[in-house]
Specification:
231 residues, mainly alpha, Arc Repressor Mutant, subunit A, Four Helix Bundle (Hemerythrin (Met), subunit A), 2 domains, 3-stranded antiparallel sheet, binds zinc ion
Length: 231
């Protein structure tokens, strides 16, 4: 299963820091993605190469390449004669993202139940969510929540599902960044997860599927027009 890892793992002294060799376009893309997902670069805002190049202190070429990466991810779009902008979300897109997420997560739950995969790895993320909710640390809660769902998908052991979920989650992330400005019940979000883990542990398929379905639907329940109105 970890064949790639074995082939590429060489023993290295761990006290020597590696030289940063991530391509510049990837670093720029990561920086811009973060700005979009956090709402620092609001939906609909123009991406001006010269301004961004100046701001990030790089030349225009990596900016252009980074914007292309984000366009492929679906976070950026081209407007004829006007250039690139952060892609706004429509009511339809928000609805589609959540309905597809529900299918992905239910599929993951079914596969975990069928293969009786242990779900111990989920406890840590539940714990992190509870701690974050108690500390009213919203970004820590979001990170733990994402880690929980990524782990759930990983445990389903289906590469294409994982790739599709990751791509979809870019959109979900963006939606969450916007909606979280209007709604913040951290304790409720945290409390939603342990019963899902419990149902998986006792192999209660009906309950596990009902809970994960309800969880994704509650997240989708916020009127999508509220999200889109904020553009
Ligand atoms: Zn969740």
């Amino acid at each position: 299963m970890n064949a790639d890892k074995v082939i590429f793992s060489h023993s290295k002294p761990d006290n020597i820091e590696p030289i940063e060799n991530v391509p510049l376009r990837t670093q720029v893309a990561d920086r811009l993605r973060e700005a979009i997902l956090s709402g620092q670069l609001p939906l609909g805002s123009s991406l001006v190469e010269t301004a961004l190049a100046e701001q990030l202190n790089v030349s225009r070429a990596p900016i252009r390449e980074a914007i292309q990466i984000l366009e492929n991810d679906g976070l950026v779009e081209t407007i004829a004669y006007k250039g690139k902008r952060v892609k706004p979300l429509t009511v339809r897109e928000v609805g589609e993202a959540y309905s597809l997420r529900e299918i992905f997560e239910v599929m993951a739950v079914r596969r975990i139940l069928e293969s009786r995969t242990p779900v111990d790895a989920l406890h840590e993320h539940c714990h992190d969510m509870t701690a974050a909710a108690e500390a009213e640390n919203f970004s820590a809660l979001t990170a733990a929540d994402e880690a929980f769902h990524r782990t759930l998908i990983r445990l389903a052991d289906h590469d294409l599902l994982m790739a599709s979920w990751k791509n979809l989650y870019l959109r979900i992330h963006q939606i969450m960044a916007i909606r979280n400005r209007v709604e913040r019940d951290l304790a409720e979000v945290a409390m939603n997860h342990p019963p899902i883990v419990k149902a998986l542990e006792v192999n209660d398929a009906d309950l596990a599927i009902t809970l994960i379905t309800d969880h994704t639907r509650i997240l989708a329940a916020l009127d999508p027009t509220i999200i889109v109105k904020q553009l």
